[in-house]
Amino acid sequence: MGSKDSLKQLVSKEEIANRVEELGKQISKDYEGKDLVLIGILKGAFIFMADLVRHISIPIQMDFVRLSSYGNFMESTGEVRITKDIELNIEGKDVLVVEDIVDTGLTLQYLEDVLNLHKPSSIKICCLIDKKERRQVPVDVDYVGFNIERGFLVGYGIDFEENYRQLPGIFKITPGYEPEGFIPSDK
Ligand code: IMP
Ligand code: MG
Q: Which end of the chain is more exposed for a tag (fewer CB within 10 A), N or C?
């Protein structure tokens, strides 16, 4: 893998920057006077979260969770585990979950259920990319960067097998493959 993958840019870094700024301003307005805690989902949301918070002008706190989900790279099964939990007390706080991509919705449905046990006063969701046509469970996303219907996406924090997170834009990837019995020639 790697050099055989083909990538096509769908969203440029300038388009991302503009949209993220708009989202930050909207969030600042909507949560004025509230006790807002942003919870970023690692690793995919780390760049989005870092850019977003710099456009939020009201006081906020931040925390992160790390989730691991089963399934192959194209499809999540909805079996999710928390491998790093939140550290802040969110009881009575307004929580905004920051996610890279909402696809089937299974991951966020699970996380919302778990976070609700901590009795926050509200939970909303902000995602960079919404693939809402693929939803299997009803998860409402309150702030959406971009709606992208299909394709496997990488860049701006989002990976394919841990690669491509550092790309500044959002790309559709067509993974390369090695046919059965392929013997790499050594140079
Ligand atoms: P869901 O549980 O099906 O909503 O899956 C959401 C998770 O699957 C996201 O947090 C991503 O980590 C991953 N995912 C979904 N689509 C893509 C994609 O196009 N590229 C990379 N990861 C994706
Ligand atoms: Mg993810």
A: C
